[in-house]
Design brief:
L-fucose Isomerase, Chain A, domain 2, Rossmann fold, alpha/beta, 5-stranded parallel sheet, 14 helices
Length: 449
Amino acid sequence: MKAFKVGFIALTKASWATPEIDNLRKAALASLKTLPYEVVDGNGLTTTAAEASALCTDLRKQDVSAVVVFMATFPVGAIIPVIAKELPVPVVLVSTPEKPQAGGMWTQNSFCGSNMAVHTLRKLGRKNSFVFGPADQTGKLVQKPLTLIKCLADLAFAKIGLVGGRVPGFYTSNCDEMRLRAKIGSEVEVIDIIELVETARKLSAEEAARGVEAVRKTASTCCAKVEKEIESGGRMYEAFRKTAAKYNLTAYAVRCWPEWSDIFGIAPCAVLGMLNNDRMVSSCEGDVLGAVLMQIEASLSGGIPFFADLISFEYDQNTAVLWHCGAAPSAICRKFEETALRQHFRVDGGNKKGLTNEFSMKAGPITLAQLDEDGDGYRMLIAKGTALDTEPFIRGNPLNVRFDCPVERLVSTIMTEGFKHHYSIIHADMENELIELCRWLGITPVVVK
């Protein structure tokens, strides 16, 4: 991933420029620099198209990822097309509130400047965001738009390791790689399961021991039957890490059955949870778009997502159970003392081979989402809710959720619209952020209310 740099351009008309107007620029710039990004600015007010062109050239050379355009006052109209054409990065427009000054003078007309700019940008096919507030709060105002733009930049440089392809018959895990590259920017690297196996086999004793220690730390207890499989789990974990470094991967989508446990001796479930703990998002069953969505949720929220199936629901309680078989990240567990490394309850008939990490997950606000191919593009299912305090009442990783929308409507939407059976859940209210991301990427949002 390249460094995320933010350009800053403060606009005014030369005849409107005053020390007070420049103080607004300085306040906005100082506030912007409180964010965790490198800020590149022109060290002054930009008043002409020629000045804007020179500044855009400098910002291009410094490889900025986004530009904050601060409307200190209503600008020269010709400046906006220059920025749009000469600086091909996402734009965040900032305007400030104002009151009439001495003599009834309206000295900024800042909002009107952004109003003109947004129309021009639309005509030129350039997406943008707009925020409004005091100059000295610019950093806070643009934080969400810049987080989203950084997410878009990360997606454009993302590389998902598809290990083994999708599982048999799971057409829900199919992914058009060229569509993904064209519309979202992410790349798929196809990796054979045998490469992971051979990488694990060739690890040094020191590398294997490091992996074993990591496996033991990821759970509170370890079933006696899987003690003999802990080394295999450690080797698998280190092999995934080593392979990610080899191919410069940002995520995994793994064909976790049916042959994995026969080839390797154990299932990869617990190890996938460990990778998610490390923020190397990893989806099950070869679902590439599931991994892309997990990256989106992780990037926008700073949290760790849970890749799951929806397995049951209660209309009268307005609840539904999200679940998977033991690959959830223990970082989002309900209680660490409940985490337990166990044998998989399905593989080879059940309770014959490891390695799962079983527990229920923590309570709190959640957003469920799903990214799906739709026509020539994509659609995204979005629904908010609250994860309830969930006892580990079934094997694997259960989470009981009370949704804000009627669960019956959610189920009806899924079934009538033919959505996939894989979902990604993040412990955050992400509805607005996901809708905005859909706007930027041309994804159709399907928000269940």
